[in-house]
# Entry
Amino acid sequence: MFDISSIYQAQSVADAIRALEQDPGALVIAGGTDVLIKVREGKLAGCRLVSIHGLEELKGISQAPNGDIEIGPLSTFRDVTYDKIIRANVPVLGEAADMAGGPQLRAAGTIGGNVCNGITSADTASTLVALEAVLRVRGPRGEREVPISRWYHGVGKVDLAPYEVLTKIVLPRKGYEGFTGHYIKYAMRSAMDIATLGVSCLAQLSQDKRETRQVRLAFGVAGPVPMRAPGAEAAASNRPVEQALAAIGPAALGDVSPRSSWRASREFRLQLVEELSARALAEAMRKGGAQV
Amino acid sequence: MMEILRCTVNGRPVEVGIDQRESLADVLRERLGLTSVKKGCEVGECGACTVLVDGTAIDSCIYLGVWAQGKTILTVEGLQNENGELSPIQQAFVEEAAVQCGFCTPGIIMSAVEIVGSGKRYTREELRKLISGHLCRCTGYQNILNAVERAVNEAHKFVGREEQEQ
# Structure
């Protein structure tokens, strides 16, 4: 039995918001693959929970008439990976989602939880950052939208008030159209492991596929929160592909601030940043038709 | 914090009083006596507690029992046929000597049920990934992989789908 002092099963998003307003100390539980483990470990022992598990209004992935892709936050990693809209438009996000944990976890854990827990190693986070996703959250006074660049406040802290619920993860059309992407998760094991470093790269190429246009690069575990690498992006954008490949890694070193942890030292993470940035860019460009 | 859980377990409708704080693994083991559901790590890493919820393999140790309201649950106890014989998947594990201590076996068999049920063929590498949410400390996985492969291939003869839709 879990050490939970209360759990309220919300019947709708409005109901969940009401419950959270009444008890601002309560935590939202969605897929449970993160919260229940923290309860088990004792970190959240005795917590009060509001469950949004199974709320249909928070599921599903659709494309708006303007081309924006709207992901219901209760979509599981597996839902994201196998969704036709994601596969056709942003396969890199499905590939990243397919690297979290193992199959059973991916069938229960949600993409919304992956961005709401504010963890730097979250496998979908760096790709969502690179895609310039927008988080739509609802509270007692209605909805507001937060660009992902302003979402992460610190380790485990995101721009979500205690009485707010994430209702959509929006991928604006301009964030993904014309880009091909690649995510690399570096970990000790190929399943059931947490990223030592995560790198997501999106690239847009010139018509003749010989030059880059816009390049976007984002990291997990290269700092306290998932982050963009503006210096590396500038160094790799609008360059002949070979030059972009040579420039991106060294430039990325100026953007990141990894720390040493029991998983890996700062020095090793810096080496990964430099090497994997180039590998992710090469693969992203290859998917876009470049000869590299 | 008691609540009545109504769901279908191994083909039978079930109505059982549960505590809201119980995991589905607790409910299945303690309330319903389905002890094929093993509790190993209890943090969703080892896969010993894997059951199917509406056909999808999940770790029942990190799934609240109350979330199973109205759902269909399948455990290894639900696999044997009326005569008490093993299912072809269980039989494949026997044939390939894929069982040593047996603790991880029920969980892997439930994942295999989902894999086989897809009716698709998989490469060995794909199967490796599909069972990567299970830890086995005895066999080194080779015979387990052989058993899953055998079950997939045998089932494919009957319900095969050539298209790789997913």
Notes: The interface with chain A takes residues 1, 19-23, 26, 42-45, 47, 50, 56-59, 62-64, 66-67, 111, 129-135, 166 of chain B (CB under 8 Å). Chain B has a mean pLDDT of 94. Strands of chain B lie at 2-9, 12-19, 50-53, 56-59, 72-74. The CA atoms of residues 24 and 140 of chain B lie 29 Å apart.
